[in-house]
Amino acid sequence: MKEFMNMYSNLVQRCFDDCVNGFESKSLTSREESCVMRCVDKQMKGSQRLGDRFQEQNAAMSQGGGLGR
Fold first, then answer.
1. Interval 26-61: pLDDT, tens
2. Is 43 within a domain?
3. pLDDT tens-digit profile of 5-31?
4. In a domain, 69, yes or no
5. What does pTM read for this prediction?
6. CA angle at residue 63 from 57 to 64, to 5 degrees?
7. What are phi and psi of 26, to 5 degrees?
8. CB-based burial, 5-34: b 16+ in 10 Å, e otherwise
9. How many domains is the chain partitioned into structurally?
10. Which range is the signal sequence, renumbered to this chain (predicted)?
11. 49: domain range?
12. In a domain, 49, yes or no
């Protein structure tokens, strides 16, 4: 659970820093909202891909294949 919260916190911080440019309004602009959605999607896909590769490597190692590429 702690790992998940760390990942979530880092995701929020990164996307906020990259996408939110001002505080003229308490709501996000359409441009900021679009940026946040793309940022979150990109980060989640990257995390999923990393998890998939980790599982593949783990399976290969457990079958005696070692660290292949």
1. 999 999 999 999 999 999 999 999 999 999 999 999
2. yes
3. 998 999 999 999 999 998 999 999 999
4. no
5. 0.73
6. 90
7. -80, -10
8. eeeeeeeeeebeeebeeeeeeeeeeeebee
9. 1
10. none
11. 2-15+30-59
12. yes
